[in-house]
Amino acid sequence: MSNINKLNKEFINKLNKIYKEEDLEIIYKWFNCEKRKTSFRVNTIKSSNEEVIDMLLQNDLKVKKVEWLTNAFILLNWDESDLWKLDLFKNWFIYLQSISSQIPVEVLDMKNWTNILDLTAAPWWKTSQVAAKINNTWEIIANDNNSIRIDKLKFTLDRQWVKNTKIIKNDARNIINNNSEYIEYFDYIIADLPCSAEWKFNTNNEKSYAYWSNEVVKKNYKLQKQIMKNIIKSLKKWWELVYSTCTISPEENEDICHMILCNFPEIEIVDLKINYEYSRPWLVNYENKFFKKELNKSVRILPSEESEWFFIAKFKKKID
Question: For residues 231-258, b (16+ Cβ closer than 10 Å) or e, as one string?
Answer without folding.
Answer: bbbbbbeebbbbbbbbbbbbbbbbbbbb
